[in-house]
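Exercise 7. Predict the joint structure of the components listed below.
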Amino acid sequence: MNSLTEENYLKALYNIGIDKGEVSVKELSENLGTKMPTVNSMIKKLADKKLVHYESYKPVTLTEKGKKEAGLIIRKHRLTEMFLVDKMNIGWEDVHDIAEQIEHIKSQIFFDKMDELLDFPSVDPHGSPIPDKQGKMIWKEYNKLSDCKVGDTVKLAAVINTSSDFLKYLNARDMRLGMKIKIKGIEQFDKTMEVSVGKRPSEMLSNVVSERLLVENL
Amino acid sequence: MNSLTEENYLKALYNIGIDKGEVSVKELSENLGTKMPTVNSMIKKLADKKLVHYESYKPVTLTEKGKKEAGLIIRKHRLTEMFLVDKMNIGWEDVHDIAEQIEHIKSQIFFDKMDELLDFPSVDPHGSPIPDKQGKMIWKEYNKLSDCKVGDTVKLAAVINTSSDFLKYLNARDMRLGMKIKIKGIEQFDKTMEVSVGKRPSEMLSNVVSERLLVENL
DNA sequence: TATATAAGTTAGGCGTATCTAACAAATTAA
DNA sequence: TTAATTTGTTAGATACGCCTAACTTATATA
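Solution:
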């Protein structure tokens, strides 16, 4: 069994390494808010447990075993987020911190019940995929809204960078997953987009925002 | 803020000392499964934090502050148990271990939502009172079934010693809180009771069982 | 390519929560 | 009331997860 700390390292390794596959000690250190020497020694411990591949002065990669365990923790995290939003009416901007704690609960039955009550969801409230019971996670083919062209009509599928502040920004503008977005114009200079969201006529989205929104083509 | 370990000590002190008011190092040690020297040093720490009254070689008592904090942890525990049973359909024999973990979650909103969704319950699934938001807990005037006389008709109000095995025993006999129990006879030798539960005609309950059942007079 | 900078590592220390072994006080029994 | 037993305490060690300071390797730059 892994400690709470080990679980957090695995999760961070999975999340940070999602694209490149490898993670530097520096990145991990910054992501966890833990100093490099601490991270260094923890990585050795994870390597002893065959959860990561590690060689001195090289970036770390998760082993298959590590990937699976990380995936299962993320599964519990996202299942929990979905439960908190759907079954407990907690705002999507508040669920991350709670799920961060509940994901470490040791109880098969608890998470199985959540899964069942939610009717086996495949995504969390922010549109991120929920890994399956084998810890396998598959991202659908989404595009950033910022990469879309004028005239495109898309559906808001997920949000990147699920900081509470960003989600509150979206709440204030009544923007939710599943909404249709029409791109009416793009200002070349700063990439501000003029869009029509749902049935509303027109509003402006800065590039900072449009880069954080993942959309699905319609 | 108290650590998870400190919270467990407070909770144990509250639960063990419920009648006598004071708790010996030995009792605490056995209850927590932690050796006496460890308990001894932890008590000193709690005393420094003004959570317990402590003098060498004397039993420990909770301060008002300690009582309140313990009460609030027990509140979270019991609210959680109720939520797990009522809203997640988890059996009452399984909820204790899960609640034991969830009670340490740091999130006001999470427990407030539970409370609200449960419509502000006053007892947990085992009939134990849920402390209020000030950590105050009041036990109703229940009697042990074993103290009742032949001819009494009572209602099953709570179970003492909520071990999973005992609860499974009750499940197997379809005995639930709220059921009416008529005492039809008591065998003097071993205090075995002949009772009628609900609409069922007659069954036997050993003293071991009847001592663990709290009832309310009708 | 030599050197300055960034990233990674080692050594040694700290606080928490735990333990065992040894000793002291309090309680019980002879 | 003395001795035996039980309970409580002190001392010293361990594992974990964290830190700073100092050093090493790798990378970037002049």
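Discussion. Chain A touches chain B through 18 residues (CB under 8 Å).
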